[in-house]
Amino acid sequence: MSKVYVAVIGAGGVGKSFISQLNAYALRSKKYTISTILISRSSKALLSKDYSGLNLTTWESDISSSSGVKPPSFPDETLKFLTSAPGPMILVDNTSSETIAEEYPRFLSSGVHLVTPNKKGFSSSLALFKAIYAASEAQNGGYVFHEATVGAGLPVLSTLKDLIDTGDEIVKIEGVFSGTMSYLFNSFAPLSPSGAEKSFSACVAEARELGYTEPDPRDDLNGLDVARKLTILARLSGLLVTEPTSFPIQSLIPKPLESAASAEEFLAGLAGFDGEMHKVKTTAESEGAVVRYVGSLDVGKGEVSVGLRNFDRGSTVAGLKGSDNIISFYTRRYGERAMIVQGAGAGADVTAMGVLSDLIKVLERLK
Amino acid sequence: MSKVYVAVIGAGGVGKSFISQLNAYALRSKKYTISTILISRSSKALLSKDYSGLNLTTWESDISSSSGVKPPSFPDETLKFLTSAPGPMILVDNTSSETIAEEYPRFLSSGVHLVTPNKKGFSSSLALFKAIYAASEAQNGGYVFHEATVGAGLPVLSTLKDLIDTGDEIVKIEGVFSGTMSYLFNSFAPLSPSGAEKSFSACVAEARELGYTEPDPRDDLNGLDVARKLTILARLSGLLVTEPTSFPIQSLIPKPLESAASAEEFLAGLAGFDGEMHKVKTTAESEGAVVRYVGSLDVGKGEVSVGLRNFDRGSTVAGLKGSDNIISFYTRRYGERAMIVQGAGAGADVTAMGVLSDLIKVLERLK
């Protein structure tokens, strides 16, 4: 049994689910002994100072008890603690923090492996993206995997890697990359209308109540989450997008509401713009189509875009249900018809699964 | 640069495409020096006796020239030659030979890694399947990857592995697993009929002329190819199917034609049964459905089946085009809606890509 050390930063929805899955994996693994030495939240942490490993069954009550301590400073104390582990070390960043992502190169250079669903490191400045990969590819650099940054647990980045590694050429990637946007448009402009037509603002309010949006839905409607995912796919496909905002992003936030003081004020104001969205929807319908919020990447033309587009009622994108994602890869080898990956692209369990399968990929590659 | 040795048995359509992709990969790889020491066809082979590596650009003319020698005997001389290589050794079996597959355990036990699109080893007797995995998992056993045995280059087995490794439970897997059957039924019972209705036998004859079927179409129509793929998925999902014939397989070969002396005689006779298939098609149409040839695996119920089934016109399966495959994974975590992988599931280039991406997975795992 090889012994491997794991540190988990961020223990919210995805983090909790990840720790539970990691616990089960550690118990059934016959090849690896996994010792989790750090679980850290913003204000409290659990540390296994002697590296013997934390109890992953009781960690939630432990962290709230007197065992919970002030988290080690980041990056200095954390890096020191991690690099002093007596064996291979994997850092799992389950936050969405840019501050943490900015330190990835330092951790990777020190030989710490990294798995994360945090998009920030890979979709912010191009300099950071390059620094992360350079650190990983340097001698004794740690491995980096971030499958869950696009499509949660869906095999999107691993498929892209296989295509590129084997010499295929990516022509175009397009699809529905946001569970929130998917749910919103499947309910606002359904393929099979139920008769009870709902306004766009009512759909947003409903999606928010059901937990499908961020607390402030503007964080979804601005399109930046989708733009970050497209930035990651573009860069991995060789299209070195400078920033996640350096291509056209269609925001669904009406200009006058960008500065609304609260989510509630925004939602109240949004109803005033329902007419515009209704027109977008009926125009699509008159063409036998439905409107959807998609991202698109054309490697040949060097173009990336994010926004509304009409899809034929018979198309796969139009047929999407619930909050499912769909990602279509057009490549030289696959020709006219795409290779398609489809399914739930959000949710704590499937996101955590993407993170854990990355962690297993690191384990399998350890020398 | 780590040096790795590769032996390729079988250099037909997939084998040729594989060697061309391997050549390109070897030229651009900055991490591995790949030395191909054997390319073997049924009657002729190229050997690099000093392990310095064959020329992958000129191999086709070389093998037909005086450089082409009698292949080393299998398994004895081949095994001896491979295990004497001065570094990690990967065997690529691009044949569909059962005789070769039966020797996988010996090669794996000797530390030779194996990648293959050959279904035989994994879909014949359960004893062979178990012996292969036991040999691979034993101390110093070689790795085994066989992504291209199901869905060619589509990420099917890797996705199944990720789901299982991370502790998800496979509930059901179903889909269209044969490019031939996909093409045949998309043209016999199209979603959008063109008006010019074709009989089933005419569709089979046409598919054969276009190279979509085996030389004798009965080798597709008997359903055994699909049954072998289902056997592999079932076993990897923990359902230990004894034989690829130990569950219901609906053959599309009319009983009286099973013994037809030739493919031509079979095709001539098939027209006499067009009425039956026409009835199957119109019955589906009267229910607002289309008929498709699918495989299905219910892990909970322990049931596997292969045959015709009707699909709602609005379903993803009904919307399939050309010779595309579709594979739907229903799991505990993904819930009601499946995770779906879709795209070309046959063809030399995409199959070879599946084999090469497996070979790269071996390289990445070498100690």
UniProtKB/TrEMBL annotation, chains A, B:
Annotated positions binding NADPH: T95, K119
UniProt key word NADP: yes
Aspartate/homoserine dehydrogenase NAD-binding domain boundaries: 10-141
Gene3D superfamilies per record: Dihydrodipicolinate Reductase, domain 2, NAD(P)-binding Rossmann-like Domain
Any one Gene Ontology molecular-function term assigned to this protein's record: NADP binding
Keyword terms of this UniProt record: Amino-acid biosynthesis, Methionine biosynthesis, NADP, Oxidoreductase, Threonine biosynthesis
Pfam families: Homoserine_dh, NAD_binding_3
Superkingdom to which the source organism belongs: Eukaryota
Residue ranges constituting the Homoserine dehydrogenase catalytic domain according to the UniProt record: 155-360
GO BP annotations, alphabetical order: homoserine biosynthetic process; methionine biosynthetic process; threonine biosynthetic process
Active-site residues, record numbering mapped to chain: K229
EC top class, as a word: oxidoreductase
EC annotation from Swiss-Prot or TrEMBL: 1.1.1.3
Binding, L-homoserine: E214
Catalytic activity: L-homoserine + NADP(+) = L-aspartate 4-semialdehyde + NADPH + H(+)
Binding site for NADP(+): G10, A11, G12, G13, V14, G15
Keyword Metal-binding annotated: no
This protein's pathway: Amino-acid biosynthesis; L-methionine biosynthesis via de novo pathway; L-homoserine from L-aspartate: step 3/3; Amino-acid biosynthesis; L-threonine biosynthesis; L-threonine from L-aspartate: step 3/5
Required co-factors: a metal cation
Protein family per UniProt: Belongs to the homoserine dehydrogenase family.
Function: Catalyzes the conversion of L-aspartate-beta-semialdehyde (L-Asa) to L-homoserine (L-Hse), the third step in the biosynthesis of amino acids that derive from aspartate (the aspartate family of amino acids), including methioinine and threonine, the latter of which is a precursor to isoleucine; production of homoserine leads to a branch-point in the pathway as it can either be O-phosphorylated for processing to threonine, or O-acylated for processing to methionine.
Protein name: Homoserine dehydrogenase
